[in-house]
Write a structure and sequence with these properties.
The complex is a heterodimer of chains A (114) and B (116). By secondary structure, chain A is mainly beta. Chain A has strands at residues 3-5, 10-14, 19-21, 24-26, 31-38, 44-50, 56-58, 64-68, 73-78, 87-95, 103-104, 108-113. Chain A contains no helices and twelve strands. In chain A, the strands form three sheets. In chain A, strands 2, 5, 6, 10, 11 and 12 form a six-stranded mixed β-sheet that branches. In chain B, the strands form two sheets. In chain B, strands 2, 4, 5, 6, 9, 10 and 11 form a seven-stranded mixed β-sheet that branches. In chain B, strands 1-3-8-7 form a four-stranded antiparallel β-sheet, with no helix packed on it. The termini of chain B are far apart. Classes of the chains: A mainly beta (114), B mainly beta (116).
Chain lengths: 114, 116
């Protein structure tokens, strides 16, 4: 079975600074990988996903993530954070060829200082 | 309506009440999910339906009763809940299969449930 770890519970950045949120997964084969964002009181919105091919994935709202198989990681990045990016971010892993139900990390709360 | 919708958005109920949460997806997906999201806890998968058949029940108490009459609608019937059941209940849907575009979940906005 697959698993995913988001090591950081909270991340605080200043507006305009760069951002990297960490995600490590465990799965024996090539995974599906997803990043979701959740604003307070809302559902989860898909930011980007990796299935195959180019390991650098572009998403919405200026986010990108890089799949590194050797490190079992799929870190989310943004070059310049806006105050509206403050939210909860979830990484999820799915099994290609296995269960269709993805496994979610515990989430990282992003705080943006003006 | 587009995407995944949930009603009501907010619900306050007493421990002896019976209520239902409704979820509808307009995406043509075949799988639907109920999640519970409590403060400071990870997402908890409660139930999964695939082509209207329940495929997952993660040891959820019987005071939660799901119903999936068709692939577009999902209900969560609630009765004799406890205060610790207060949470955000999220519905999601996906198209199951292999390859790009499959298995990504689309979420509704959730129902904020408060049990008094």
């Amino acid at each position: 079975a697959q698993s995913v770890t988001q090591p950081d519970i909270h991340i605080t950045v200043s507006e305009g600074a760069s951002l990297e949120l960490r995600c490590n997964y465990s799965y024996g084969a090539t995974p599906y990988l997803f990043w979701y964002v959740q604003s307070p009181g809302q559902g989860l919105q898909l930011l980007l996903k990796y299935f195959s091919g180019d390991t650098l994935v572009q998403g919405i709202k200026g986010f990108e993530a890089e799949f590194k198989r050797s490190q079992s990681s799929f870190n989310l990045r943004k070059p310049s954070v806006h105050w509206s990016d403050a939210a909860e971010y979830f990484c999820a892993v799915g099994a290609q060829g296995g269960s269709y139900i993805p496994t979610f990390g515990r989430g990282t709360s992003l705080i943006v200082h003006p | 309506e587009t995407g995944v919708t949930q009603t009501p958005r907010h619900l306050v109920m007493g421990m002896t009440n019976k209520k239902s949460l409704k979820c509808e997806q307009h995406l043509g997906h075949n799988a639907m999910y109920w999640y519970k999201q409590s403060a400071k806890k990870p997402l908890e998968l409660m139930f999964v339906y695939n082509f209207k058949e329940q495929t997952e029940n993660n040891s959820v108490p019987s005071r939660f009763s799901p119903e999936c009459p068709n692939s577009s609608h999902l209900f969560l019937h609630l009765h004799t809940l406890q205060p610790e059941d207060s949470a955000l209940y999220l519905c999601a849907s996906s198209q199951t299969g292999q390859g790009r575009g499959y298995n990504e979940q689309f979420f509704g906005p959730g129902t904020r449930l408060t049990v008094l």
